[in-house]
Amino acid sequence: MKLIVIVLLLGSLSIAACSTIPAAATEPEETAPPVVIADSRVVADGMLVPQDFVDLGFAAGGEVAQVLVEEGNSVTSGDVLARLTGRERLESSVESARLELQAAQAELLSAQIARQALDDDLNLAQAQALEAVTQFKAAVRTAERRVRSWSNSADQADIDEAKATLIFAEDALEKAQDRFEPYADKSETNLTRAARLADLAKAQQNYDDAVRRLNNLQGITGDDFDLNQSEAELRVAQARLEQAEVDLAMFQEGPDPDAVLLADSRITTAETRIATAESALLAAESALSDLDLVATMDGVVVELNLNPGEQVSPGRPVITLADFSEWYVETDNLTEIEVVDISLDQAVEIIPDSLPELTLGGVVESISDTFEEKRGDITYTTRILVDEIDPRLRWGMTVVVSFE
Q1: Along the chain (404 residues), what's the average pLDDT of each consecutive run of 10 residues?
Q2: Which of 38, 157, 263, 313 could cross-link 115 (Cys pair, CB 3.0–4.6 Å)?
Q3: What is the C-alpha to C-alpha distance for residues 396 and 131, in angstroms, rounded to an integer?
């Protein structure tokens, strides 16, 4: 019963309170919703790096002879930056190897020329062998006629041919006598007289030979000595003919096999010698080049840890070169959620932490295909080309990158 009374009292109090509120207050004013500005840019941290850089070290170990640069020097690719000792000995080795290579190349050329000559001279050798066969066949026939003439076994054809030869020889002798006659009383030192006298002597010899041969063929024979001599001449002529025929057959089959084998062997030996010399020269030049520390790019010497007289070990970095012709920013904290909104050639805004008043522009040049896991996030590295260069910029400065 008490509970009912209390409820009724509370209800009446509420009604009374409501009646005291003005009527306008019962209708609340309409207000505009708050404006929220969304920033869709991706922001990442980055570091300034040069276009390229390299750490250089000697390929060989040894004592430093010269340091040819200082920190801050600009160098060109191929410049010698420093040298080790021992250069004179290795230069001598290079020169010796080069001379041996030249000698081997000359020997190869000589061997190749000799081998080629075997083919080039083959036609000439064949022609000479054929001519020799023809000449020795004629010599055999002549020797056979002489043997027959001394043995009185000549036939009529040989006798007729001998008579005709005698007639020609007699005519030639008479003409030679007529040509010599005007010069017979001249001095013996007269060149024309000497030439005419030589022609006369030759014509007289041919005439005497023709007379002797005709006499022999007609039965006026010589003694046994003449016969034996003619038979010996016949045997010599036959032997020479046989050898000429053998040579001709050989040349018709190609170059002399023994000569070809020797020439080919010379070529092979020379080629082997060249290969050995080339290897020796390459090794000597490599050993010599190992004494030089050479710039592998255009750039500036930014770090130099080298002094003359110092001992260095192979591969230890002693000089750092950097190419400051362009600056890049590398970021390494773009997450997998952010990197999907980044694209190549995308414009960016760069503010160095040490120069907050400086704002630089840039474009995305590359986005890594591989990932790293950092602080529990999957991240990707982006490389950004800076549009402009400020002399206050330094390698390693940190920046904030805003991707448009």
Answers
A1: 35 41 44 42 92 94 94 95 93 93 94 86 80 87 74 69 90 92 86 88 90 74 65 84 83 79 93 95 93 95 94 94 94 90 94 94 94 89 92 93 90
A2: 263
A3: 92
Q: Which domains does the chain have, with CATH numbers?
A: 323-403 (2.40.30.170)
Residue type, 181: E
Alpha helices in 290-346 (DSSP H): 336-339
**CA–CA separation, 318 vs 329, rounded Å?**
26
Nearest to 327 by CA among 381, 396, 379, 277: 396
Tell me how far CA of residue 239 lies from CA of 126, 137, 138, 148, 242, in angstroms.
19, 11, 13, 19, 5
Cβ 7 vs Cβ 290: under 8 Å:
no
pTM here is 0.51
Q: What residues contact residue 74 under an 8 Å CB cut-off, 6+ apart?
A: 298, 299, 300
Residue 94's H or E segment, with its range, is: helix 87-120
Is 75 within 8 Å of 298 (Cβ atoms)?
yes
